[in-house]
């Protein structure tokens, strides 16, 4: 095997691994996915993970980024700073991960609505 073939093989394997690591789970809602991606890879100041989820789970939801902006979310982490928080009281124990963390409760295919793990932050009440 030549060096070029080895490099090409490695690039293919890395691309496959990246796809596996960053693919949305089956029926994983947008917020659970974005939260998981931020925890693993951070926020780059854009809606990168939100767009990736949309492209794979709900490609017809062309207004998703605009709707995020309406709640003050112009990057992925702002979804959780300005838009939604965990509604721990609605998460059954069987969905809690190690350390009491919550897992996605799932959504139907194509919906951009978050699962019941998430609740909208009511900024009007506090400001």
UniProtKB/TrEMBL annotation:
InterPro entries found in the cross-reference section: DUF2695
Pfam families for this protein: DUF2695 (PF10905)
Protein name listed in UniProt: DUF2695 domain-containing protein
């Amino acid at each position: 095997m030549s060096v070029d073939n080895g490099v090409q093989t490695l690039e293919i394997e890395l691309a496959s691994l990246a796809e596996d690591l960053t693919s949305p789970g089956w029926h994983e809602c947008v917020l659970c996915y974005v939260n998981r991606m931020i925890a693993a890879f951070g926020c780059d100041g854009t809606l990168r993970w939100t767009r990736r989820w949309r492209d794979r789970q709900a490609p017809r939801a062309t207004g998703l980024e605009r709707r995020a902006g309406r709640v003050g979310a112009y990057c992925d982490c702002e979804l959780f700073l300005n838009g939604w928080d965990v509604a721990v009281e609605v998460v059954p124990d069987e969905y809690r991960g190690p350390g009491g963390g919550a897992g996605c409760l799932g959504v139907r295919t194509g919906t951009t609505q978050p699962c019941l793990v998430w609740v909208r932050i009511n900024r009007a009440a506090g400001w």
